[in-house]
Specification:
Elements (H helix, E strand, L loop, with lengths): L2 E6 L1 H5 L6 H11 L4 E7 L4 H12 L2 E5 L10 H9 L3 E3 L1 H13 L13 E3 L3 E3 L8 E4 L10 E5 L3 H20 L6 E7 L4 H13 L5 E7 L2 E8 L1 H15 L3 E3 L5 H12 L3 E5 L5 H7 L8 E6 L3 H8 L3 H7 L4 H15 L3 E7 L14 E8 L5 E6 L4 H20 L1
Parallel strand pairs: 1-2, 1-3, 3-8, 13-14, 13-15
Antiparallel strand pairs: 4-5, 6-7, 7-8, 9-11, 9-12, 10-11, 15-16, 16-17
Helix pairs in contact: 3-4, 9-14
């Protein structure tokens, strides 16, 4: 079934409002066994009519968000009536619902709100208990332009999401005639690049009949998406796990930090961090996870050399001889954090985020990482991440957490 989403609202194109509808609709529709074919965003006003006409000409169903308010730039109803060739009338039941909404809040309804009771002749009015704008469903039989269903929904998520679940989803399922949605498994990997993953596994996955494969890369992570029936997905998973068991950290969408917290909690282990170049990002990621209080004990942000010396016990002579960004210092940071916190595991990082401060021996992007654990030898690793400061910090935090995962996994 060809489904298109048409988001309306000038604020979405000015950047003052983040458009999260595409992601949300994609997730909800896939659960029903459907996909978004195209997502279009247009400003308020006449552009809605042109865009809707194009969508209706291509799709089996179009979901329009926004433009159902009482103001002069809310023109979605009018645009839809013009495109599908229907008349707008004031619906008495919708008007009574509007009046009741305002009465329940001891407010007087403005005359402009009557506009929100207008519906296309023959269309279904979709109740909106969370706002003033009812939705509208134009079934294909009423569309004189094309055999396409049109859903008009309010823009605010608090109104749109319940209306979609209660009113739109059942109608889409009936239109599509689907019995069982396809299965999907998303494997999340770290420590391998997207192109390397694709090169090593793609041909083997392509040999599985009925399996759709997709990749999505982020800093320090790659998602491997497997879609198909149960047998095809299981076969794809078996191949991926056999080849990349060490790199796979999640099969249920969990973040790397959530995986670390889960593993450490299951083993009754405590974690401490000692951060220089990341400025507390590793600790922040860990403590964003519900239940992290069972695991996390201390977060040392030792940006200055004095902090490394006074809080973690890094010898001044070591700092003078090797510099803050060095293997001896990062190992001393990890071991000092382990001792000061009493945790079972400590991770430390120190690096050069840039854009200045690099040298020939230590270029911008250089980072040293170390992991210390009770009763085990301290591990250390040098990496180079030549990125902007924000992305550098994220990449380093990813490598630090992955080292913890591998240590306790």
């Amino acid at each position: 079934m060809r489904i298109e989403i048409l988001n309306t609202g000038t604020e979405l194109l000015l950047g003052t409002t983040l458009n999260t509808h595409g992601k949300w609709f994609g997730e909800q529709l896939f659960k029903l066994g459907m996909r978004i074919q195209r997502l279009t965003t247009v400003p308020d006003g006449d552009a809605i009519t042109e865009a809707l006409r194009e969508c209706v000409g291509r799709a089996d169903a179009v979901i329009v968000t926004g433009g159902l308010g009482p103001t002069s730039d809310d023109l979605t109803r009018e645009a839809t009536a013009a495109v599908v060739g229907a008349e707008l009338i004031e619906d008495e039941a919708a008007l009574r619902s509007l009046e009741a909404f305002f009465a329940a809040r001891n407010k007087v309804m403005a005359d402009s709100n009557r506009k929100q009771a207008q519906v296309l002749v023959g269309a279904d009015v979709l109740p909106n208990p969370n706002g003033t704008a009812p939705g509208i469903y134009v079934p294909p039989r009423l569309n004189k332009a094309a055999n396409c269903a049109v859903f008009l929904l309010p823009g605010p998520p608090r109104e749109l999401y319940p209306m979609f679940r209660d009113e739109v989803a059942p109608r889409l399922v009936a239109l599509a005639g689907l019995s069982k949605p396809p299965g999907m498994l998303e494997l999340r990997l770290t420590g391998i690049g997207e192109s390397d993953l694709q090169q090593e596994i793609d041909a083997k996955l392509a040999a599985i009949p009925g399996l759709e494969v997709g990749y999505c890369a982020r800093i320090g992570e790659v998602d491997l998406r497997l879609i198909g029936d149960d047998a095809a997905v299981a076969a794809g998973r078996e191949i991926a796990v056999s080849m990349f068991a060490k790199q796979i950290f999640s099969e249920d969408g969990s973040s790397l930090e959530a995986t670390v917290v889960r593993l450490m909690a299951a083993r009754g282990l405590k974690l401490a961090t000692a951060e220089s170049c990341t400025g507390g990002l590793i600790a922040n990621r860990v403590t964003d996870v519900p239940g992290s209080s069972e695991v996390f004990t201390h977060g040392f942000v030792t940006y200055a050399n004095e902090a490394k010396r006074d809080l973690l016990g890094v010898p001044q002579a070591m700092l003078d001889e090797h510099g803050a960004v060095s293997e001896p210092v990062v190992r001393a940071m990890a071991e000092g954090a382990l001792k000061a916190s009493g945790a079972d595991v400590a991770v430390a990082v120190t690096g050069i985020a840039g854009p200045g401060g690099g040298t020939a021996d230590k270029p911008v992007g250089t980072v040293w990482l170390a992991w210390a654990a009770k009763g085990r030898e301290t591990l250390s690793l040098r990496q180079i991440h030549p990125r902007n400061r924000k992305d550098f910090k994220l990449a380093v935090s990813q490598a630090a957490l992955d080292g913890v995962r591998r240590l306790v996994g």
